[in-house]
Design brief:
The protein is of the alpha+beta class. It folds into two domains: about 100 residues, no CATH class; about 290 residues, Neuraminidase. It has a four-stranded antiparallel beta sheet with strand order 3-2-1-24, with no helix packed on it. Helix 1 crosses helix 3. The protein is globular, with a radius of gyration of 23 Å. It starts with 14 loop residues before the first helix and ends with a strand. Keywords: Kelch repeat, Repeat. This is F-box domain-containing protein. Pfam families: Kelch_1.
Length: about 400
Protein backbone atom coordinates (compact mmCIF):
# COMPACT_ATOMS: atom_id res chain seq x y z
CA UNK A 1 0.00 0.00 0.00
CA UNK A 2 3.01 2.27 0.34
CA UNK A 3 3.61 3.23 -3.25
CA UNK A 4 5.70 5.65 -5.24
CA UNK A 5 8.83 7.57 -4.41
CA UNK A 6 9.02 8.77 -0.86
CA UNK A 7 11.48 10.53 1.35
CA UNK A 8 12.07 10.57 5.07
CA UNK A 9 10.03 13.16 6.94
CA UNK A 10 11.49 15.13 9.84
CA UNK A 11 9.71 14.76 13.18
CA UNK A 12 9.88 16.43 16.54
CA UNK A 13 12.21 14.16 18.51
CA UNK A 14 13.78 14.02 21.93
CA UNK A 15 17.12 15.85 21.84
CA UNK A 16 19.07 12.58 22.27
CA UNK A 17 17.76 11.28 18.94
CA UNK A 18 18.09 14.44 16.84
CA UNK A 19 21.71 13.79 15.88
CA UNK A 20 21.01 10.08 15.36
CA UNK A 21 18.20 10.89 12.93
CA UNK A 22 20.46 13.24 10.97
CA UNK A 23 22.91 10.35 10.53
CA UNK A 24 20.08 8.10 9.30
CA UNK A 25 18.78 10.61 6.79
CA UNK A 26 22.22 11.39 5.43
CA UNK A 27 23.27 7.75 5.26
CA UNK A 28 20.07 6.56 3.54
CA UNK A 29 20.40 9.30 0.94
CA UNK A 30 23.98 8.35 0.30
CA UNK A 31 23.22 4.64 0.00
CA UNK A 32 21.12 5.41 -3.07
CA UNK A 33 23.52 7.87 -4.67
CA UNK A 34 26.99 6.61 -5.57
CA UNK A 35 28.32 10.01 -6.57
CA UNK A 36 28.37 10.97 -2.88
CA UNK A 37 30.88 8.30 -1.81
CA UNK A 38 33.44 10.90 -0.84
CA UNK A 39 30.88 12.68 1.32
CA UNK A 40 30.05 9.41 3.06
CA UNK A 41 33.73 8.88 3.85
CA UNK A 42 33.91 12.37 5.31
CA UNK A 43 30.83 11.68 7.48
CA UNK A 44 32.40 8.48 8.78
CA UNK A 45 35.67 10.26 9.58
CA UNK A 46 33.86 12.99 11.50
CA UNK A 47 31.83 10.44 13.38
CA UNK A 48 34.92 8.43 14.34
CA UNK A 49 36.48 11.59 15.80
CA UNK A 50 33.47 11.95 18.09
CA UNK A 51 33.84 8.38 19.32
CA UNK A 52 30.52 7.31 17.85
CA UNK A 53 31.79 4.83 15.28
CA UNK A 54 30.89 1.25 16.09
CA UNK A 55 33.02 -1.75 15.24
CA UNK A 56 31.59 -4.07 12.64
CA UNK A 57 32.08 -7.50 14.09
CA UNK A 58 31.07 -9.66 11.17
CA UNK A 59 31.08 -9.55 7.41
CA UNK A 60 27.36 -10.29 7.27
CA UNK A 61 26.60 -7.28 9.46
CA UNK A 62 28.57 -5.12 7.08
CA UNK A 63 26.86 -6.43 3.97
CA UNK A 64 24.70 -3.89 2.15
CA UNK A 65 22.31 -6.72 1.32
CA UNK A 66 21.57 -7.67 4.90
CA UNK A 67 22.64 -4.89 7.29
CA UNK A 68 20.78 -1.82 8.46
CA UNK A 69 22.69 1.48 8.66
CA UNK A 70 26.09 0.10 9.53
CA UNK A 71 27.96 3.32 10.41
CA UNK A 72 25.62 3.89 13.38
CA UNK A 73 24.76 0.29 14.30
CA UNK A 74 21.53 -1.69 14.47
CA UNK A 75 20.12 -0.35 17.76
CA UNK A 76 20.51 3.31 16.84
CA UNK A 77 19.23 2.55 13.33
CA UNK A 78 16.05 1.04 14.72
CA UNK A 79 15.64 3.82 17.27
CA UNK A 80 15.69 6.38 14.48
CA UNK A 81 13.54 4.37 12.06
CA UNK A 82 10.82 4.26 14.72
CA UNK A 83 10.48 8.00 14.31
CA UNK A 84 10.24 7.97 10.55
CA UNK A 85 6.82 8.38 9.01
CA UNK A 86 5.07 5.06 8.45
CA UNK A 87 4.35 6.29 4.92
CA UNK A 88 8.08 5.85 4.24
CA UNK A 89 8.26 2.25 5.40
CA UNK A 90 7.41 0.91 1.96
CA UNK A 91 10.45 2.64 0.46
CA UNK A 92 12.64 1.61 3.38
CA UNK A 93 11.59 -2.02 2.98
CA UNK A 94 12.97 -1.97 -0.57
CA UNK A 95 16.51 -1.07 0.55
CA UNK A 96 17.60 -4.59 1.56
CA UNK A 97 16.48 -7.78 3.27
CA UNK A 98 17.09 -6.52 6.81
CA UNK A 99 14.92 -3.46 6.32
CA UNK A 100 12.23 -5.54 4.63
CA UNK A 101 12.20 -8.12 7.42
CA UNK A 102 12.15 -5.47 10.14
CA UNK A 103 9.12 -3.75 8.64
CA UNK A 104 7.07 -6.61 7.18
CA UNK A 105 7.35 -8.81 10.25
CA UNK A 106 5.86 -5.99 12.29
CA UNK A 107 8.80 -5.49 14.67
CA UNK A 108 9.00 -1.74 14.05
CA UNK A 109 5.28 -1.30 14.73
CA UNK A 110 5.51 -3.25 17.98
CA UNK A 111 8.41 -1.08 19.12
CA UNK A 112 6.54 2.08 18.11
CA UNK A 113 3.57 0.95 20.16
CA UNK A 114 5.77 0.28 23.21
CA UNK A 115 7.24 3.77 22.95
CA UNK A 116 3.89 5.48 22.37
CA UNK A 117 4.68 6.48 18.76
CA UNK A 118 1.70 6.38 16.41
CA UNK A 119 0.35 7.95 13.24
CA UNK A 120 -3.39 7.71 12.71
CA UNK A 121 -4.75 6.98 9.24
CA UNK A 122 -8.44 6.88 8.36
CA UNK A 123 -9.79 3.83 6.51
CA UNK A 124 -13.28 3.92 5.03
CA UNK A 125 -15.54 2.30 2.47
CA UNK A 126 -17.90 4.33 0.29
CA UNK A 127 -18.43 1.55 -2.25
CA UNK A 128 -19.23 -2.05 -1.39
CA UNK A 129 -16.04 -4.16 -1.10
CA UNK A 130 -13.83 -1.16 -1.85
CA UNK A 131 -11.70 0.58 0.78
CA UNK A 132 -9.57 3.69 0.79
CA UNK A 133 -7.27 5.22 3.36
CA UNK A 134 -6.24 8.80 4.01
CA UNK A 135 -2.95 9.80 5.58
CA UNK A 136 -3.49 13.24 7.20
CA UNK A 137 0.23 13.62 7.91
CA UNK A 138 1.27 13.31 4.29
CA UNK A 139 -2.06 14.41 2.75
CA UNK A 140 -2.15 11.18 0.72
CA UNK A 141 -4.94 8.92 -0.52
CA UNK A 142 -4.25 5.18 -0.64
CA UNK A 143 -6.46 2.66 -2.44
CA UNK A 144 -6.58 -0.76 -0.80
CA UNK A 145 -6.92 -4.00 -2.78
CA UNK A 146 -10.53 -4.98 -3.43
CA UNK A 147 -12.02 -7.26 -0.79
CA UNK A 148 -12.58 -10.91 -1.76
CA UNK A 149 -16.21 -11.81 -1.29
CA UNK A 150 -19.37 -13.46 -2.50
CA UNK A 151 -22.81 -11.93 -3.07
CA UNK A 152 -24.07 -12.87 0.38
CA UNK A 153 -21.22 -11.16 2.19
CA UNK A 154 -21.45 -8.15 -0.09
CA UNK A 155 -25.10 -7.55 0.84
CA UNK A 156 -24.79 -8.28 4.58
CA UNK A 157 -24.45 -5.83 7.44
CA UNK A 158 -20.78 -5.25 8.09
CA UNK A 159 -18.78 -3.91 11.02
CA UNK A 160 -15.19 -2.71 10.89
CA UNK A 161 -12.43 -2.38 13.44
CA UNK A 162 -8.76 -1.39 13.23
CA UNK A 163 -6.38 -2.93 15.76
CA UNK A 164 -2.58 -2.94 15.63
CA UNK A 165 -1.65 -3.20 11.93
CA UNK A 166 -4.90 -4.93 10.95
CA UNK A 167 -8.21 -3.77 9.55
CA UNK A 168 -10.94 -6.28 10.42
CA UNK A 169 -14.24 -6.42 8.53
CA UNK A 170 -17.02 -8.57 9.98
CA UNK A 171 -19.84 -9.85 7.78
CA UNK A 172 -22.19 -12.73 7.17
CA UNK A 173 -22.35 -15.61 4.70
CA UNK A 174 -25.74 -17.40 4.73
CA UNK A 175 -26.06 -18.41 8.43
CA UNK A 176 -22.48 -17.93 9.53
CA UNK A 177 -20.36 -14.91 10.33
CA UNK A 178 -16.90 -14.42 8.87
CA UNK A 179 -14.01 -12.03 9.43
CA UNK A 180 -11.79 -10.64 6.68
CA UNK A 181 -8.46 -9.10 7.65
CA UNK A 182 -6.43 -6.50 5.78
CA UNK A 183 -2.80 -6.22 6.87
CA UNK A 184 -0.71 -3.13 6.17
CA UNK A 185 2.36 -5.39 6.42
CA UNK A 186 1.43 -7.35 3.31
CA UNK A 187 -1.09 -5.00 1.65
CA UNK A 188 -3.49 -7.90 1.24
CA UNK A 189 -6.73 -9.41 2.51
CA UNK A 190 -6.96 -12.82 4.15
CA UNK A 191 -9.41 -14.73 6.39
CA UNK A 192 -9.34 -13.39 9.94
CA UNK A 193 -9.67 -15.28 13.21
CA UNK A 194 -13.34 -15.89 14.01
CA UNK A 195 -14.85 -14.78 17.29
CA UNK A 196 -15.73 -17.26 20.01
CA UNK A 197 -19.37 -16.13 19.68
CA UNK A 198 -19.75 -14.77 16.13
CA UNK A 199 -22.01 -11.73 15.82
CA UNK A 200 -22.80 -8.48 14.03
CA UNK A 201 -24.24 -5.06 15.01
CA UNK A 202 -21.94 -4.88 18.04
CA UNK A 203 -20.04 -2.05 19.71
CA UNK A 204 -16.26 -2.09 19.50
CA UNK A 205 -13.07 -0.13 20.08
CA UNK A 206 -9.33 -0.78 20.11
CA UNK A 207 -6.40 0.26 22.25
CA UNK A 208 -2.94 -0.70 21.02
CA UNK A 209 -2.82 -4.39 20.14
CA UNK A 210 -6.13 -5.12 21.86
CA UNK A 211 -9.76 -4.62 20.89
CA UNK A 212 -13.04 -5.31 22.66
CA UNK A 213 -16.40 -6.07 21.05
CA UNK A 214 -19.64 -6.25 23.04
CA UNK A 215 -23.31 -6.95 22.37
CA UNK A 216 -24.74 -7.40 18.88
CA UNK A 217 -26.80 -10.22 17.43
CA UNK A 218 -25.96 -13.81 16.60
CA UNK A 219 -26.76 -15.64 13.35
CA UNK A 220 -30.36 -16.19 14.50
CA UNK A 221 -31.03 -12.59 15.52
CA UNK A 222 -30.72 -13.07 19.29
CA UNK A 223 -29.50 -9.93 21.04
CA UNK A 224 -26.35 -10.57 23.06
CA UNK A 225 -24.85 -9.29 26.30
CA UNK A 226 -21.56 -11.17 25.86
CA UNK A 227 -18.22 -9.52 25.16
CA UNK A 228 -14.84 -10.62 23.80
CA UNK A 229 -11.28 -9.29 23.66
CA UNK A 230 -9.07 -9.68 20.60
CA UNK A 231 -5.26 -9.58 20.77
CA UNK A 232 -3.77 -9.06 17.30
CA UNK A 233 -0.28 -10.11 18.39
CA UNK A 234 -1.60 -13.43 19.71
CA UNK A 235 -4.21 -13.71 16.94
CA UNK A 236 -6.71 -14.90 19.55
CA UNK A 237 -10.11 -14.03 21.05
CA UNK A 238 -10.78 -14.20 24.79
CA UNK A 239 -14.20 -14.29 26.44
CA UNK A 240 -14.96 -11.44 28.86
CA UNK A 241 -17.70 -11.17 31.50
CA UNK A 242 -21.11 -10.32 30.02
CA UNK A 243 -22.69 -6.88 30.21
CA UNK A 244 -25.64 -6.20 32.49
CA UNK A 245 -27.96 -5.50 29.54
CA UNK A 246 -28.15 -7.24 26.15
CA UNK A 247 -27.95 -4.71 23.34
CA UNK A 248 -27.37 -4.34 19.60
CA UNK A 249 -26.50 -1.38 17.36
CA UNK A 250 -24.42 0.11 20.14
CA UNK A 251 -21.10 1.97 19.99
CA UNK A 252 -17.84 1.43 21.83
CA UNK A 253 -14.92 3.61 22.94
CA UNK A 254 -11.86 3.45 25.18
CA UNK A 255 -11.56 6.27 27.70
CA UNK A 256 -9.36 6.55 30.80
CA UNK A 257 -8.11 3.01 30.10
CA UNK A 258 -11.64 1.62 30.37
CA UNK A 259 -13.99 0.33 27.69
CA UNK A 260 -17.44 1.87 27.29
CA UNK A 261 -20.49 0.58 25.46
CA UNK A 262 -22.88 3.40 24.62
CA UNK A 263 -26.57 3.25 23.69
CA UNK A 264 -28.04 0.66 21.38
CA UNK A 265 -31.29 -1.27 21.16
CA UNK A 266 -32.69 -3.79 23.64
CA UNK A 267 -35.20 -4.92 20.99
CA UNK A 268 -36.30 -3.78 17.56
CA UNK A 269 -38.25 -0.94 19.16
CA UNK A 270 -36.69 -0.25 22.58
CA UNK A 271 -33.90 2.35 22.58
CA UNK A 272 -31.38 2.16 25.42
CA UNK A 273 -30.19 5.44 26.94
CA UNK A 274 -27.70 3.89 29.35
CA UNK A 275 -24.08 2.97 28.81
CA UNK A 276 -21.83 0.44 30.48
CA UNK A 277 -18.23 0.75 31.63
CA UNK A 278 -15.86 -2.22 31.68
CA UNK A 279 -12.90 -2.04 34.06
CA UNK A 280 -10.16 -4.15 32.45
CA UNK A 281 -8.20 -4.49 35.69
CA UNK A 282 -11.14 -5.59 37.85
CA UNK A 283 -13.04 -7.41 35.11
CA UNK A 284 -16.44 -5.91 36.02
CA UNK A 285 -19.15 -3.91 34.23
CA UNK A 286 -20.89 -0.82 35.64
CA UNK A 287 -24.12 0.69 34.28
CA UNK A 288 -24.07 4.45 33.59
CA UNK A 289 -27.61 5.91 33.29
CA UNK A 290 -28.43 8.41 30.52
CA UNK A 291 -25.01 8.10 28.90
CA UNK A 292 -26.53 8.05 25.41
CA UNK A 293 -29.71 10.02 26.04
CA UNK A 294 -30.82 11.60 22.76
CA UNK A 295 -27.92 10.31 20.70
CA UNK A 296 -29.80 7.70 18.67
CA UNK A 297 -33.32 6.64 17.76
CA UNK A 298 -35.05 3.40 16.83
CA UNK A 299 -34.51 3.97 13.09
CA UNK A 300 -31.22 5.80 13.39
CA UNK A 301 -27.60 4.79 13.32
CA UNK A 302 -25.75 3.74 16.48
CA UNK A 303 -24.42 6.70 18.48
CA UNK A 304 -21.67 8.54 16.61
CA UNK A 305 -19.07 8.92 19.37
CA UNK A 306 -15.31 9.46 19.59
CA UNK A 307 -12.69 10.07 22.28
CA UNK A 308 -9.88 12.65 22.06
CA UNK A 309 -7.50 13.05 25.01
CA UNK A 310 -9.84 11.01 27.22
CA UNK A 311 -12.78 13.31 26.49
CA UNK A 312 -15.93 11.87 24.91
CA UNK A 313 -17.61 13.64 21.99
CA UNK A 314 -20.73 12.82 19.99
CA UNK A 315 -22.19 13.88 16.66
CA UNK A 316 -25.92 14.37 17.23
CA UNK A 317 -27.20 13.67 13.75
CA UNK A 318 -30.74 14.70 14.70
CA UNK A 319 -29.77 18.23 15.75
CA UNK A 320 -26.64 18.30 13.55
CA UNK A 321 -24.44 19.43 16.43
CA UNK A 322 -21.35 18.22 18.29
CA UNK A 323 -21.67 17.46 21.98
CA UNK A 324 -19.19 16.80 24.76
CA UNK A 325 -19.82 14.45 27.66
CA UNK A 326 -19.57 15.98 31.13
CA UNK A 327 -18.19 13.10 33.20
CA UNK A 328 -18.86 14.76 36.54
CA UNK A 329 -22.53 15.55 35.86
CA UNK A 330 -23.07 12.60 33.47
CA UNK A 331 -24.68 14.87 30.90
CA UNK A 332 -24.06 16.15 27.36
CA UNK A 333 -23.10 19.75 26.57
CA UNK A 334 -23.64 21.16 23.07
CA UNK A 335 -20.48 22.71 21.59
CA UNK A 336 -21.56 23.78 18.10
CA UNK A 337 -22.52 22.56 14.66
CA UNK A 338 -21.31 19.77 12.40
CA UNK A 339 -19.74 20.63 9.02
CA UNK A 340 -22.43 22.12 6.78
CA UNK A 341 -22.02 19.73 3.85
CA UNK A 342 -22.02 16.51 5.91
CA UNK A 343 -25.13 14.62 4.87
CA UNK A 344 -26.65 11.54 6.49
CA UNK A 345 -29.86 9.54 6.64
CA UNK A 346 -30.65 9.40 10.36
CA UNK A 347 -26.91 9.13 10.98
CA UNK A 348 -26.35 6.42 8.37
CA UNK A 349 -23.68 7.24 5.81
CA UNK A 350 -21.77 9.66 8.07
CA UNK A 351 -18.57 8.79 9.95
CA UNK A 352 -17.44 10.53 13.14
CA UNK A 353 -14.07 9.39 14.46
CA UNK A 354 -11.12 10.38 16.61
CA UNK A 355 -7.89 10.60 14.62
CA UNK A 356 -5.07 11.25 17.05
CA UNK A 357 -5.67 14.66 18.63
CA UNK A 358 -8.40 15.65 16.18
CA UNK A 359 -12.02 14.79 15.44
CA UNK A 360 -12.83 13.75 11.88
CA UNK A 361 -16.20 13.93 10.12
CA UNK A 362 -16.39 12.00 6.86
CA UNK A 363 -19.31 12.53 4.52
CA UNK A 364 -20.39 14.87 1.80
CA UNK A 365 -23.07 16.16 -0.54
CA UNK A 366 -24.82 13.97 -3.08
CA UNK A 367 -25.69 14.94 -6.63
CA UNK A 368 -26.99 13.48 -9.88
CA UNK A 369 -23.47 13.34 -11.29
CA UNK A 370 -22.10 11.39 -8.34
CA UNK A 371 -21.02 12.22 -4.85
CA UNK A 372 -18.15 14.00 -3.18
CA UNK A 373 -16.46 12.64 -0.06
CA UNK A 374 -15.09 15.27 2.30
CA UNK A 375 -12.92 14.92 5.40
CA UNK A 376 -13.41 17.70 7.92
CA UNK A 377 -11.13 18.05 10.92
CA UNK A 378 -11.24 19.93 14.22
CA UNK A 379 -8.80 19.83 17.13
CA UNK A 380 -11.01 20.26 20.22
CA UNK A 381 -10.32 23.28 22.41
CA UNK A 382 -12.35 25.51 24.71
CA UNK A 383 -14.26 27.17 21.88
CA UNK A 384 -16.95 25.97 19.45
CA UNK A 385 -15.96 23.65 16.60
CA UNK A 386 -14.01 25.28 13.77
CA UNK A 387 -14.07 22.67 11.02
CA UNK A 388 -11.34 22.55 8.39
CA UNK A 389 -11.78 20.49 5.23
CA UNK A 390 -8.47 18.64 4.95
CA UNK A 391 -9.30 16.46 1.95
CA UNK A 392 -11.97 15.78 -0.65
CA UNK A 393 -12.42 13.70 -3.78
CA UNK A 394 -15.14 12.45 -6.13
CA UNK A 395 -16.49 9.22 -4.69
CA UNK A 396 -19.54 7.67 -3.23
CA UNK A 397 -20.59 10.05 -0.45
CA UNK A 398 -22.29 7.40 1.71
CA UNK A 399 -19.80 5.95 4.21
CA UNK A 400 -20.62 2.29 4.82
CA UNK A 401 -17.78 1.56 7.24
CA UNK A 402 -14.94 3.51 8.81
CA UNK A 403 -12.04 2.81 11.17
CA UNK A 404 -8.94 4.67 12.33
CA UNK A 405 -5.64 2.79 12.60
CA UNK A 406 -2.97 4.24 14.86
CA UNK A 407 0.42 2.55 14.58
Amino acid sequence: MLEGNSCLVSRTLPSGCEQELKWVYMTLELLNNNKHKEELEEINRNKKKKGMMECQSSSSEGSSSYGLINPIGRDISINCLLRCSRSDYGALASLNRSFRSLIREGELYRLRRQQGIAEHWVYFSCNVLEWEAYDPYGSRWITLPRMPSDDCFMCSDKESLAVGTELLVFGKVVLSHIVLKYSILTNSWSPGVGMTSPRCLFGSASLGEKAIIAGGTDAFGNILSSAELYNCELQSWFTLPSMNTPRKMCSGVFMDNKFYVIGGMASNTKVLTCGEEYDLERGVWRVIPKMSLGLNGASGAPPLVAVVKNELYAADYGEKVVKKYDKRNTSWVTLGGLPERSVSVNGWGLAFRACGERLIVIGGPRGLGGGMIELNSWIPDEGPPQWEMIASKHSGSFVYNCAVMGC
